Structures are given as structure tokens and as C-alpha cells.
Amino acid sequence: MRIADALSIVAVATACAVLAGLVGLTVARLVRRRSIRWQLAVVAVVPVAGAYLGATAVARLMFISAHDLLVMSVVSSVAALGAVGIALVVAAAIARWSDALRAQLRTFDATSSESAGGTPGTAELRSLADELDRTRERLREAQDRERRLEEARRELVSWVSHDLRTPLAGIRVMTEALEDDMTTDPARYHRQIRAEVDRMSGMVDDLFELARIQAGALVIAPEPVLLSDLVSEALAAITPIAEANGIRVEGAVDEGVEVSADPAGIARVLDNLLVNAVRHTRPGRSVEVRGSLVAGRVEIAVSDGCGGLPTEDLARVFDVAWQGTPSRTPEGTARGGGLGLAIVKGIVEAHDGHVVVENRPRETGCRFLVVLPGQ
Ligand SMILES: Nc1ncnc2c1ncn2[C@@H]1O[C@H](COP(=O)(O)OP(=O)(O)O)[C@@H](O)[C@H]1O
Ligand SMILES: [Mg+2]
Q1: Considering only CA atoms, which residue is closest to atom 12 of ligand 1?
Q2: Per the structure, how many domains does the chain have?
Q3: What is the domain extent for residue 38?
Q4: Residue 55 within a domain
């Protein structure tokens, strides 16, 4: 074959392939919103049509016999039919797989346990199914969180109505008795009213603090403070109450440990932890505070002698308004409203730290560990 002939064959074949391709693309664009069957049929037909067009044009150019042209047309048509058949089979499978995925999506919610991961199909469809599983997992976590928050809100409302209304009713009865001169010991009533009012204002303070924490409005002003100063101040406040109840309080802080923190916030954290520790420690046992620097982070551990908490309670102590079973309330440590540890957690987390609780060995008690970033 002469080079000129070969070149003209390539040129004609290319022109025909481009023409078939352009028509194919136009059709594919027109049917883009229809089933994938149409797209695949176009993909199957275009190369065969291009080849047929090219061959016919070249045949006319080269004066190939009518017989040869007929043979070629038959061969191309059969090839085109075969290609379209295969395309339709593949398209049917893809349509089936996507139907299965759609069925999964239709019943999609966080509660369905059925995993979409096993869906058959192409890599793309399977990765879509995996993504569906991950989304379901995220949805489930979000719903759990939402449910816990809702529960906490409900508990808080019932707490406010119960824990604040009961003392108010008591105060009302006492003031009425005082008003009517019905009491032989007015001084005792005054003292009691005063104690109730103090306790209630403590609760209202807690409620405000918690509202600020939950609204993300807790502003901390960190400054370098000596951990030993914070601990000794907290110990000084709690020791008389503990001793009056037969509980020893011990503190040990590594020398020179500094923490960058809001002193009032951390004082409140220590206070809440110590009041709890003393309240739940049995007489004769002790409460220990340990402050140390571990791997560049400041750790404050408050251990008590409460006898250990049930595992399911360990996960709940930081929940708002959760109080577990009523415990004895020693002199000087009025029972709060289940907000103390939620506040502790909020303040510690606002400092980019975290707080955990664990049981000490041999059911002696539990240990609250506050970890704060070091200086
Ligand atoms: N040191 C502790 N030892 C044992 N149980 C504790 C301790 N601290 C807290 N708890 C449990 O966690 C609950 C929640 O504590 P908190 O948020 O401080 O609320 P409150 O002290 O007002 O009850 C307590 O009611 C108690 O059941
Ligand atoms: Mg408390």
C-alpha cells in the first residue's frame, strides 16, 4: 500500500470516528437523565458505528466490491447487536444494585441495625454503601447525645421544681410560724431559715454557672498559679468540716508545680471535688489530694473512702442533675443538686483539660483525676 493511500485511510477513519463520537456524545447528553442503560448502549454502539462508517467510507474511496461491503456491514451489525446486548446486561446489573442501595436509603434511619456495607455492586456503589453505614453511625451517636441532653434537661427542670420548691415551702412555714408567734424557739427558726437560704443561693449560683458553661459563655482568665497554693486553700476550707465528721484530709503537691489556669475556676473544681469526697467518705477513713506534674501535664487526684461506685454509676456522675442514691449528708456539706460534677467537668474542659473517675483498688473508694495542660 502506498503511503498516500495509508494516510488517506487514517484521515477518513479518524473523521468517521470523530463524527460517530460527536453524535454519540450528543445522544449521551440528551439521555443523561434517563437510566444508565441508555448511556451504556451509546458507549457500546459508538465504536461499532465509528468502525462501520469508517470502513464504508474507505470502501467507497477505494472502490471495494459491493459484496465485500455487504459482508462488512453484516459483521458490524452483528458486533453492534452483541455490544448493545452486553451493555444492557451490565446496565441491568447496575440498575439492580442501585435499586438495592435505594431500598437501603429508603429505610435509612439511626435505629436500623441492617448494615449497607454488604451491598453488592461496583466499587463506587460499595463505597457509597460504606459511607451510608458511617453516616448511620454518626446519626446514631448524635441522637444518643441529643437524648442524653434531653434527659438531663428534664431532670434539671424536675430538680429545680423539687429541690428549690421544697426548701421554699419550709421557709414559708417557718416564717408563718414566726409571724403568728407560734414558736417557742424563734432563734432556731431564724438559723434554719438562714441555712436554707444559703443552700438555695448556692444552688442558684450552681445553676447560673452551669448555664454559662452550657452556653459556652464561660470565660477563663488563665494565669500562672502555684498548684500547692490552690490545694492548700481548698484543704483549709474543707478540713474543719471533715474533722467534725471523723474524716482525715491529707494533701501532697509536688514542689514548684505551676499551672496556667483561672484560679477561681480551679478553686471551685477542688472545692466541689473535696465536698463530694468528704460527704461520701465513711467516718474513720481519709480523703487524699495529690498534685503532680506527669509528662508535662498537671494532674490533681482526689481520692476518697466511699467504698467504690458501681460501674454504671461511674459513667453517670458527671451528668447534670444525676445524684445516684441518696447518701448521708455530714454536717456542713449540704447536698447540692447534682450539678457539682457537671460544673467541674465544664470548668476543666474550658481549660482544655479533662476529668475522669475510677474506683480505687479493693473497694476502698473512688478517685477523681483532673488533668490540665502544663505551663
Ligand atoms: N467522691 C464521691 N464518692 C462517691 N460518689 C460520689 C462522689 N462524688 C460524687 N458522687 C456521686 O455523684 C453524684 C453527683 O455529684 P455532684 O454532681 O457533685 O452532685 P451532688 O453533690 O449535688 O449530689 C452524687 O450525688 C454522688 O452520688
Ligand atoms: Mg457535689
Answers
A1: 317
A2: 3
A3: 3-106
A4: yes
